[in-house]
Every structure is written in structure tokens, then in C-alpha cells.
Amino acid sequence: MQVAMIGLGRMGANMAQRLQRGGHAVVGYDPSPGAREGLAGMGIGTADSLEALVAALAVPRALWMMVPAGEPVEATIAALQPLLSAGDVLVDGGNSNYLDSQRRAAALQALGIGYLDVGTSGGVWGLAEGYSLMVGGDVEAAARLSPLFEALAPTPTTGWAHVGPSGAGHYAKMIHNGIEYGMMQAYAEGFAILERRQDLIPDLAGLAELWRHGSVVRSWLLDLTAGALKDNPGLEGIAPWVPDSGEGRWTVAEAIALDVPAPVITQSLIERLRSRQDNAYADRLLAAMRGASGGHGVKRG
Amino acid sequence: MQVAMIGLGRMGANMAQRLQRGGHAVVGYDPSPGAREGLAGMGIGTADSLEALVAALAVPRALWMMVPAGEPVEATIAALQPLLSAGDVLVDGGNSNYLDSQRRAAALQALGIGYLDVGTSGGVWGLAEGYSLMVGGDVEAAARLSPLFEALAPTPTTGWAHVGPSGAGHYAKMIHNGIEYGMMQAYAEGFAILERRQDLIPDLAGLAELWRHGSVVRSWLLDLTAGALKDNPGLEGIAPWVPDSGEGRWTVAEAIALDVPAPVITQSLIERLRSRQDNAYADRLLAAMRGASGGHGVKRG
Amino acid sequence: MQVAMIGLGRMGANMAQRLQRGGHAVVGYDPSPGAREGLAGMGIGTADSLEALVAALAVPRALWMMVPAGEPVEATIAALQPLLSAGDVLVDGGNSNYLDSQRRAAALQALGIGYLDVGTSGGVWGLAEGYSLMVGGDVEAAARLSPLFEALAPTPTTGWAHVGPSGAGHYAKMIHNGIEYGMMQAYAEGFAILERRQDLIPDLAGLAELWRHGSVVRSWLLDLTAGALKDNPGLEGIAPWVPDSGEGRWTVAEAIALDVPAPVITQSLIERLRSRQDNAYADRLLAAMRGASGGHGVKRG
Amino acid sequence: MQVAMIGLGRMGANMAQRLQRGGHAVVGYDPSPGAREGLAGMGIGTADSLEALVAALAVPRALWMMVPAGEPVEATIAALQPLLSAGDVLVDGGNSNYLDSQRRAAALQALGIGYLDVGTSGGVWGLAEGYSLMVGGDVEAAARLSPLFEALAPTPTTGWAHVGPSGAGHYAKMIHNGIEYGMMQAYAEGFAILERRQDLIPDLAGLAELWRHGSVVRSWLLDLTAGALKDNPGLEGIAPWVPDSGEGRWTVAEAIALDVPAPVITQSLIERLRSRQDNAYADRLLAAMRGASGGHGVKRG
């Protein structure tokens, strides 16, 4: 079927390709001419403006946004809305907050425009392996776009699902990412211990590779870890500086709001904050307190 | 090749079968007649005593223990040692502390007896899918037993590796299990949040199944989780009571001994302790302190 | 000076008494007749309505709210605002969110009405020992009400301070309470360990009392703890169920928003959530996963 | 009464002075001539060797060690034992592991020599304010040395107590220090949040000072914090590097051994490990995993 892809960054461009390979007619748009040229170079059609993009689609239209969460999504919807017609369906495939998605869906549905929030997992590997798609929103709109989901997913049947009403897709993705934080931190801690005992186990990349086969901790994240360690066992040239995006924070806030203890996901987020501390005030105060209490000298910094 | 399997519990019996299927001649031993009969019923030979077991093997012998860590392993080795000859190789495939394994290897190697500590991962699924084997100890002894490892592993080449000298196998397994604690806790927290929002996402088993395909959090533990949720979405009849074995504790102690922060693995262990608290004193004291400070009433218990 | 006390719960009634004892002319108001009668029984004047209360005060007026945070404060201000005149000063001495206080101060200051957010610490002991007052808002309004602060504080000079502009007082109180959570949890954990070793140290109340004198961990919270343990060493009849109010949650959210790691304050909050879990889904899922992975039986619940 | 002080570091020299001021006849010993001269300069007697020290005391003797835990205590006892007689009492006032103290007490008691493990809290402030003394061991030996405890404690009656049999004193001190870790971390986190909001609350030292008077978080550690912040509000020149001694680690290990959750004390220890990490491998691995998963660039380090 015909579909517009709005936002041709790494994720959007990859998904446009996978859709095109899956037999769909993709028209791409990005405000950056370079991004549009990149897609055109893959033999996929592009439009120079949102107006041209919408005009290029037969009604009822299907449009898919892969745009950064927050203001960019808000602005894209504001620009699109007057161009769309009742019966069109717009997808937000990014990492929006589920409450925003619920609000946007309600506003567009009042105009007869369908709105689906589709949590999308798979990262840069999705082009080759397929994306796990968590679809939230109107069931009929989801059914109408199912050929797109089938093309994007690893297999037509298992890699996507309608998980609930508006917001459910982004909610599921939020929790997915919270779990991911915890898993990543668990691996990172384990390998950090091992890194100190290379007297005993010299080949960390080899151990990671071994665990990929038959062990209880095998996972896709372990596959990545094994690859990263194989390429660069000493992790040289990489700063110990770990960003976090909104979804970890939202998971922590949601857990607290629901009175659900989530200590490990929460601590995983805090570890990322910690990685970005420079000359941490808390640690300096602890050192000062020790000095004042026990007469211990402090290390000068 | 010929091999003795000592300890015919769930793990030992399964491994004996997989070895036999792999073309090896297994003789099993367990102090329990019922366990021996179970193995015999699968067409695998057994011996009624350690003496008979050792006598049934041609030298140089290969013997594999799947016996609970601690005293049972210690006692088994004490009983076996006078029966063995220089050139024999004994494997501890259980979850022993790596320092014990180093001590035992040194004692047996002084008698010319090889000793391998083989961290074994795969659980009850290993019979069908193969086991991930982390082999520690003498390289030549490991090479001699490699046909056994090849039969037990998911594939002859990728599912086992010699990871280092004596102790390395059990050290690797210890860290493996520490990571497993963290991963399990991350999933458990994520689904516990979701369980409160079944208004939004009614089918947790379906979401777990979806994530198995193409998502960043796909893993073997997620496969198990999806299966458990499919069978019993409400987890009814299961007490919120989580045991822990030694390896999580050893991982925590090792991290601290090495000055490596492992907050998530550590907290995962603490959560298991917490699950087994009954009428927790700490919480009662907090309630009492709140009452004394702010005049807040306490809930009577 | 003349002052109105609005809200005659435990905190408000005590503060009204301490102000009256300090030589101020207090008029109290509470929607509950019983609360008003209670204050009147202490020889302190009351008014039957906010209108009567405001009418009883000479301009420029001073009014102090001790009202639950959230809707009650919002409603009280909405009712008071038409009754007040430029030059009056209204105090919120409760545990409001500092962002609400900033908003309210701006709205009232546009009408010429002063608004102070006064973080108030001291609990039920403040009547006898004085309250620690963290004053936020306009410096001149604070200066005008300083006789009230001097009467409420433990000493006229050390127990209160103007800590910053609007919101600063409640911000300081928020962090104060976050710290309190961490301290309480630290004591609770320490005594919970000791409780298991009464073979070695039989008298926990005695140890708490000892630590009050000269030890590094002496504190007012330890004074309370020692008192609670003396009264009820086994903490019998107290449920292990620990409420939390908004300030701990706000501290956690603020730390994350500022990228400041606050693992111990955060975990202290999570422990309170944990204390209120019943048949925790996360723990049941962990038990189910263990069963599925290792064939371990689960405890039936 | 007559007493020997062995170990004239900061703690030992201060305690010798406080004992002498309390009317006791102190003889000090330290292997360092400078330490002995320091004490002699205060008008307190010293001995040049352990032999001379023991010879200077009338039987039955009282001797007090303030010597680093571990090998120094072990060596001191080994040197003293042949010099002592049945009926003498030796005190370990340092931070020994309680299991070591139990072993040492048993060995010495077999020779008729009393041995008391005395957890000593108060730091450098103990000279002026007195020490909190947690006495473990034989009741009669404790009673005989009570004049010493009375002189060292803040008041003769409240600042020391016999808390249990051998090991109980050091056990109590271990838990005391675990609690101290948690309290210090709670304050450090709170002030670290405040440090980012000096737009709102510019004077952290002033706020700490305010909290000392009437607030719920007032404590001796807050007194120290207020002093440290007053001297150096920006904590300039202090490295964010926090040592830990054995007692925090032992508390964590003991909690786990007893199945008691102690998440906050444990995390406080981990934060100290974290403060001493340089170029943390775990954080670099997390950054590498993010890069491999999402195609996110990593910060070069």
C-alpha cells in the first residue's frame, strides 16, 4: 500500500527501505534536503514539503512519523492536520510520552483522523532483522495499516500486535525501555567485575560469545555486547559517559505513581546520571564529613 | 567416549541422556536407588556404588559430578579420591564456589588427577537445547574431555570454551548468575508496572510474546517469561517468595572485594531477601518512628 | 502581634498555642467545630468562618495556614483572596509543592498580598521544643512576620531563616524530608540486623539509648527511635506498612530532573512502596521464572 | 585507676588525655618515639616498650589498645600475651571484626586474662565531648574497668554500656558505622540537589545551620556538615573520593548472611566504591552497547 514516511533520520530511512522492500509505495519527507536526497538515492520517492507529500497520497492516506519526541512531533502534527482528511491515519512511531499520544489521538479523532502510537523497537538492526511494533489506538485503523506492520516486523504474524487503545503502544515501549536499562546495567556490572579478573578469565569477548550459545543470559543485548567486546575488548577511546532519554525517566515516574517498587530499573537510570557527574558534590561532601568526623585527611581535588 | 555421571538429579540425569545421545558411553551413579532406576529406565547404565562406578571405567577415566555445591561435592571427592588414578579427570559441573574449586584442583593435581570446574548453564532446557559450558582448569585435561563438551553444548564449537585456569569456569558461572539476577529483576519490575495498567494493556502474555520477536529486550529469559505468563497470566497460586542460591551472594561479595560497584546485581539479591521477609522489623520500626515524629497513627498488625 | 491560624489539626493547634505562649494574639479557624472548641478550651480565640476570622484582624493582617497540601490549600486561598487587602501577608506552613507555592505567591503578589512559603519541621514535638522554619518569599513580608517566627522557633535567632525567594521555603522542606527518609531507613536497617542477633546484643532499646550519648549517629530521630524501642522493644502490634507523603516523591523527581544521583533517598522511598505491597506481582513472576528456568518448585501462595 | 594506653595515634592520644583528666593514671605506649614524646609533652607517662609498659602496672592490670584493626591488633596481642597474668584485662577499643574479637577473647580467657571488645564512637570530638562506648565481653571484667568507661563517656552513666558477651561491642560498632554510612549518604544527596538550586536557596551553609535547630533531621553529623559547609561552602579543593573502612563492608555481608534486606546501607557503601572509580568499565560498556543498539555515537574518552 501507499505510505508516507515523515522524518528520514537513521530510523525513518531504514524503515522506509524495509517498507519499500516489502512491496509498499513509500514517499519520504524530511525538512533536510540531504536526508531526502539520501532516500531518493535508494530509489524511493520523496516530496519537498508536507503539502506535496500529502498531495502525493491517494485518500484515505497512511502517514508514518519517525520524528524526535516532544516539540518536533507536536509541530509536525500541527502542520499536517489542516492538510489531512477524515479517514486518513497518522502513525507516531517514535518515543513519545504516552500521555501526549493519548491527547493527540483524541484531538485528531475528533476530526475523523486516525492516530496510532506505535512503539518501535529494533534500533539500527531493524532494517535487516525487522522491528518489534507495539500498536496502540483504534482497532480499525490498526487493521487498515496492518500490511505496513507486516512488512516492518520480523515476520508478518509475530512481530507486531495491537496492544491496546491510544497510548498503549507508547506505554509498552516505555516499559520496554525501562527493562532495557536494567538488563544493560546487569551486563555492564558483570563484565566490569570480570574486567578486574583477567588474571583468571583473560578473554571477555570470548566469554560473551560463549554465553550467546545455550546460556541462561543469552539475549540480543548480549549479542551486541559480544560484538562490541570483540571489536574493542578494552573499550578504548570510549568515555564512561552514558546518556539517557525520556523513557527511562518516565518508567521510574510511572512506577512511583503506581506505588510499584522498581528498584533495579530506577537504579539503572541513576547509574546513568552518575556516569555524567563531574566532581560530584555529594562525594566531596562525604569526604569533608569524614574529615570533620574522624580527622581523616581528604584527597585534594 | 566413556564417562561417569555422578549425581542423577534433574540436571545430572538430563546431561547423562544428552551425552548418551551424543554417542558417549555413560555410567550413572546416585546414592538414591530411585534416581539410578530412573536412568536405567532410559537405557543408560548405572552402578550401585562409587567403587563399582570407578571399576566400570577404563583408564584414564572421565567422571562428571552434578552434585549440590558445598558439603556434597566435598564428600564425593573425598570418597572418590582413593579410587582414582593419575591421569583420570574429574569434572565438577555444579555451582561450587570458585575458591573451593581452586583448592580442590590443587589437591587432586598433586596426585596427578585432573580436575575441571565447568560452569554449566541451560537449566531444564539444556537437554533439548544444549548447555553453555564454561571450562576452567588444565588445558590438556580440557582437551581430552572435549568430546563430552561438544556433545553437551548446543553446537560442538560455539557452546563451550576453556575460559581459564582452575576456578575460571565457576567464576564465570558465578558472574553469569549475578547477571541473571539483574535481568530477571528488570523483567519482573517491568511486568509488575504493566500489571497495574491492564486498563491500557490487557494482555501481558501477548506483549511478552510480541517482544520475543525483533525487540531490543528479546532474550531466553523473556522466552521463559512469555511461557510462564501464557500458562498463568495472573500468576495465581504462586507465592511471592523468591529463593536465592550462593552465586548471587558470591557475586555481590566479589564485587565489593574488588571495589567494583554492582548496584543492580546487588539490589536484585536484596529484593530476593526482601521477598522472604515476614512482618519486617525494619518496616515496623519505620512506622513506629513516623508515629513518634509526626503523631501519625500506625496501622495495627 | 495579631495572627490568624487557619487549620487546627495537630500541627496548627500546637503552633497556635506556641504563638499564644510567645505573647501573640492568635485567632484560630477550622471548618470543624470540634477543632475550634479544642482551641477555645486552651483559652485561644476562634472564629466561626473565614469571613469572621479576617474581620477579627486589624490591617495589615497576618494569616498562617496549616492545611493539607494540594486541594485544601488551593481552596483556602480561593476563599480567602476576596477577603484580604493589599498589605496583608498569608503564610503556607504546610508541605506544599514548591512550584505551587511559586504560582500562588505570584498570583497574590499581583494583588499586593504577601505570600510566604514556610517549611515547618518539628512534628508533634515542636510545641515544646520549637519548630525549624524555612521561610521563602518576599524579604519585607518575612521581616514583618519575624516576631511570629521568633516565637515558633526553638530560639529567636537560630531556629528560623529566610532561605530564598518564593518557593525556597517549601523546596528546602522537600529536601529536608528526602534526607529524613534516608536517615530513617538507615536506622531501620541497622536495627533490623541487630534484631536478628539478640543472642549477642539482647537489649536493642538500651543500645539505642547508649548511642544517643556521644556516638557519631546521635540525632533527634535516634532519640525518637530509642523512645519507641523502650516503649515496645518487639514493635508488637505495629504493621510493617509505611506510608509516604508527597515530599519524598518530589525529592526523587527533582533529583532526576536535575541529573543528580540520589540513590539512597530514592531507595528509601521505594522501600516504603515495597512495605505496602501485597502478594507482589514482581516476586511471583521471579518465582515463576525460576521455576521455568531451573525446574525449581515454587512456593504455593 | 591505673591504665595502659597502647597505640598513641589520634584516637589513642586523645583517649589517654581524657582518662588522665578523669583522674586515672595513664601510661602510654606506641612503637613510634614521636607519638610517645607527644603524649609525654602532655604530662602523661610513657613506656619505651611493651615490656616496660606491663612492668609499670600493678596487678591486676588494665590495658587499652587503640591500634588499627587486623594484623596490628593480632601482633600486639601476640606480644602482650606472655607478659600478662591471670586477672589482667585487655581492651580492644578499635574497629576489629567481631568474629576476631570473639576468637581472641576465648584464647585469652583460657589463660585467665580478661578481654573486652569496646566499640568506640566519637571521632576527634571525643576528647572534648566524650566517647560512646559499647562494651562486649565478661561482665565482671567490664565492671572492674567501669571507672575508665565513666571517664571516657560523655557522662558517667549514659555514655557507656555493657551490651553483651564477647564480640557484642564490636558488633554494635559495626552496625553503628553501617548506619552512619547511610545517614552521611542521605545528607550528601540532599545537599547535592540543593547545590544545583542555588538560584533558589543560595546559602547552603545557612540552611544546614538552620536545620540544626528544631528540625527533624538535626543530628551530630549535621553539626559536622554545617561546620564543613561554613568553612568551605563550595567544597573547593576536596576530591570526590570517599574511602571506606571494613565496617561498612562487614555490615553489608552480615545483613546478607542473616537474610536481612539493607538496601540503603548497602547502596551507601557502593556509592563510596563508585566515587573511587576511574574511567569506569561498566559505563564505557553501557556507552558501547547504546552505540551498537541504536547507532548512537559515543563520547570519546
Automatic annotation (TrEMBL), chains A, B, C, D:
Domain 6-phosphogluconate dehydrogenase C-terminal, first and last residues per copy: 169-301
SMART domains per UniProt: 6PGD (SM01350)
Pathway involvement of the protein, from the record: Carbohydrate degradation; pentose phosphate pathway
Oxidoreductase among keywords: yes
Sorted UniProt keywords: Gluconate utilization, Oxidoreductase
Keyword set includes Iron-sulfur: no
One Pfam family this sequence matches: 6PGD
Similarity-based family: Belongs to the 6-phosphogluconate dehydrogenase family.
PANTHER family, per database record: 6-PHOSPHOGLUCONATE DEHYDROGENASE
Name of the protein described by the UniProt record: Decarboxylating 6-phosphogluconate dehydrogenase
Protein species of origin: Luteimonas composti
